[in-house]
Amino acid sequence: MADSELAQQLLQQGEYDDSLRDQTFRFQKKAGQFLVSTSAGQGRAVAKQNSVPLTNEPSVSVAVNWLLGSGTHAQTPLAIQADGTRGIEMRWSSFHGDGKLNVTPDHDEYDSFRAGTLECFGRPMDAMDVRSCIGCHSTVVPPPPLPLTSQTMIANVGCERCHGPRKKHVVLAERGLPEQIKPMIDQHDAGAHMETCSACHRDERSVSPDSTAAERARFQPYGLKKSECYLQSSGELTCSTCHDPHDTTSHDRGQYIQQCQSCHQPQASAICPEEPSGDCIECHMPLTPWTQGIAFHDHWIRIVAGTASHESKTDLEASP
Length: 320
Ligand code: HEC
Ligand code: HEC
Ligand code: HEC
Ligand code: HEC
Ligand code: HEC
Ligand code: HEC
What we know:
The chain is 25% helix and 21% strand. The protein is α+β, with helices and mostly antiparallel strands.
């Protein structure tokens, strides 16, 4: 965190006021650490059970040592104890890369918090929370009791996370024999491919019965696996049909439409009776708002109610 662009912006800004809590957070850099302080007694504090006592000091600070997310949608700072047993997901995040802070998604339950506990900084995390959170945002996380440090882990999603450990492959490739060792994960096999992506992007196993349409739209494998395009194309359709997993998401609409049309051709497959050369994505993978101006394209490719030209587009909804 300390060396990130966001940290520089916050240091310049100096502080952040959380109007929902009537609380001020102050930022400082000391001995290479990014420190956040707040007055622990402040705010609309209420008694809550299971809170971890922080300290009896009226004003306290924590060192924020992790920053998660590329920033396309958001970046969320974390304060994690090196042994990985506890942490705090900070109350505020930066959205859309503009450096402006706002409340971290799903933190409404901490609008009220118990003064003098970790809650005055955000959501307290136990060892399980810490590992799952970091686990989806990195390549290798060491098993406990190894500490979570830059020496023991590989941050961000790197090659081995999707291709499997390839050391032998690299060794043999250096001897000119790369084909002797195949990748451990065959990314051309649709099932294996979907398993890889689902581990982080999530499928039906992560969807609770009371999930909202917006939550489900956030889980691309969940949607894609329900789509007739996936179910009826005998393993031809994977995430990499439309995305290069080595790059950021393309926003070239024409390219996606071409992908749809590569299968939906006259004679070969069903043709759209509605707008056979229109913007397929707008009607069949509509943008579904989640929170804080973040929206996801629903990857359950289907005929969505309200998208026919004779219907009013204001009824557009993502039915479960
Ligand atoms: C280890 C967890 C993990 C796995 C496995 C994973 N992803 Fe991701 N992916 C992420 C995270 C986290 C982000 C958000 C970007 C970030 O913060 O680094 C992301 C972002 C993306 C994006 C959007 C990039 C952008 O423009 O911001 C695409 C597309 C994507 N992943 C596709 C895939 C595909 C396809 C697979 C399977 C081959 C896959 N991912 C496997 C964690 C993962
Ligand atoms: C099950 C895997 C998983 C877990 C657990 C998880 N994330 Fe993510 N996270 C993802 C994926 C995949 C994305 C990219 C797609 C999206 O934005 O939903 C992402 C996106 C993000 C983004 C936005 C990144 C961008 O590109 O703008 C932030 C910030 C983030 N996660 C923070 C966290 C924090 C903090 C935690 C823990 C408290 C956490 N995540 C737990 C998988 C996970
Ligand atoms: C998010 C998952 C993911 C990550 C991370 C990732 N790859 Fe890939 N990679 C894939 C997928 C999926 C394919 C297959 C693409 C396709 O079907 O066209 C692939 C294909 C390849 C190929 C082409 C060979 C083949 O089997 O088709 C090479 C080479 C490759 N990746 C190297 C790398 C390297 C090097 C890194 C790290 C810098 C990396 N990959 C990181 C998912 C990933
Ligand atoms: C790999 C081939 C493939 C790709 C790529 C593909 N589809 Fe499909 N899709 C199919 C198949 C197969 C079906 C089943 C009906 C049929 O045979 O046409 C289908 C069905 C559909 C249906 C009808 C769904 C239902 O529930 O009745 C829609 C709508 C659709 N596709 C739209 C799209 C759009 C939009 C895209 C691009 C974002 C796309 N498809 C990409 C193969 C594909
Ligand atoms: C203006 C919104 C809109 C656009 C744009 C659009 N569609 Fe459709 N599509 C629909 C609607 C609505 C239906 C259902 C029509 C019906 O059942 O009469 C449909 C039906 C389909 C079907 C099912 C056909 C069948 O016989 O089962 C496919 C496949 C399809 N669209 C593919 C596409 C593709 C590919 C594109 C882009 C080239 C596209 N659509 C663009 C709204 C749209
Ligand atoms: C048929 C084409 C298609 C397939 C297959 C597909 N996507 Fe996408 N995806 C899109 C389109 C279109 C967008 C919107 C791109 C844009 O912003 O213009 C998108 C956007 C995304 C984003 C950015 C967040 C969002 O919703 O806008 C992520 C992450 C992502 N896809 C992940 C995946 C994963 C993981 C898979 C496999 C389970 C997958 N996609 C399969 C077409 C596809």
